[in-house]
Amino acid sequence: MKYRAEITTQLKEGMLDPEGDTIQRALMHLGYDVSGVHTAKKLLIELEADSADDATKMLDEMCQKLLANPVIHNYSIKIQ
Amino acid sequence: MKFAIIRFGGSNCDLDVHHILNDVLGVPTDLIWYKDSIEGYDGVVIPGGFSYGDYLRAGSIAASTQIMESVKQLADDGKPVIGICNGFQILVESGLLPGALCTNVYPKFCCKWVDLRVENNDTAFTSRFEKGEVVRMPIAHKEGNFFADDAALSDLNSHQRVVFRYVDSGGDVVPAANPNGSVENIAGIVNESGNVLGMMPHPERASESILGSDDGLKVFESMVGYVLQG
User: Fold this and answer.
1) Interface residue of A22, A37, A71, A73 to substitute, partner B, most B CBs within 10 Å
2) How confident is the model at residue B230 (pLDDT cuts 50, 70, 90)?
């Protein structure tokens, strides 16, 4: 079966996010009262797997091996 | 003795390191494409650059290539491995060194000379330095903000695995001397055995007096001395 998945990687809570902070300041310069901006990366992946469970297992492995850095990232997997 | 410099798509400091090792120090050194073998080499340099366009995370794609398994093997055999700048990013991404290199606190490419303090001169790459010596080398990166969690940091400190810190010209670790937000001003670390070094500053760009400093040459001289010692 063909599956489509959405992987989101995001810096762990408390990690410095200079890009998010810069965007927050820019929004505040525009007059918006924004108390936090956090950046995340979204990857849309198409893959073949026997079941949704198998697909999730493979995607989790991909996150561990390459897509996320466990030292600094949390990640989530959503199968569509 | 012969050294290998590994080239990935996007490596761009390979020829600089080659010039220093091959021409300045006279050590036969080969440029090795990442699909080729590093078997039989006595030491490895992973040079700076922007491997694979820094896609995903700086160093992450190169870290997932097959040749990094050979680098791990070579490191396990006690041979010297140095990753400079993008090479350091590749070493942390491949798990050869702990921590991570995040975007600079001021999220911009930062290219300038920095002062570094040698914290440990008992490694494969620092034996020619005095402990506490302040040296000058340039940095050039956007993802050089070294991060390690408390446990990893305490392990690095208690085992003298921090090799270089960013300091002011007087040799003091101060926030103003920190160019990228690295935790505790860390600029370079080694593995437990001291034969794998990762550093953000570029010793190869400070290895001839015509370049403004030849402090970096001691890194490569130490590497050669380490191999000669056996």
Assistant:
1) A71
2) confident
Could you give the number of structural domains in chain A? 1
Q: Which two tokens stand for residue B145?
A: 């903000």
Q: Is the pLDDT of residue A10 over 90?
A: yes
What's the mean pLDDT in B56-73? 97
Domains and CATH numbers, chain B: 3-229 (3.40.50.880)
Residues of A in contact with B149 (CB under 8 A): 71
pLDDT 10s digits, B129-154: 999 999 999 999 999 999 999 999 99
Q: What is the ipTM of this complex?
A: 0.85
Q: Residue B175: exposed, middle, or buried by beta-carbon count in 10 A (0-12, 13-18, 19+)? A: exposed
Alpha-carbon span B28 to B127, nearest angstrom? 21
Using a CB–CB cutoff of 8 Å, tell me whether B113 touches chain A: no
How far apart, in whole angstroms, are the C-alpha atoms of residue B104 and residue B91?
18
How many contacts (CB atoms, under 8 Å) link A and B? 37
Residue B45: per-residue pLDDT: 98
**Residues B128, B11, B199, B41, CA torsion sign:** negative
CB A19 to CB B107 under 8 A?
yes
> What is the percent of chain B with per-residue pLDDT over 90, rounded to a whole number?
99
Kindly report the CATH number assigned to the domain that includes residue A72: 3.30.1280.10
Q: What pLDDT is recorded for position A80?
A: 85
Do B165 and B187 meet the contact criterion of CB atoms below 8 Å apart? yes
Does an H or E element contain B198, and which? strand B196-199
Q: How many CA atoms lie within 13 A of B163 on its CB side?
A: 26
Indicate if the pLDDT at residue A49 is higher than 90.
yes
Q: Which domain holds residue A53?
A: 2-79
Cβ separation A18–B105 shorter than 8 A: yes
Q: Which of B55, B57, B61 to mutate to test the interface with A (most CBs of A within 10 A)?
A: B57
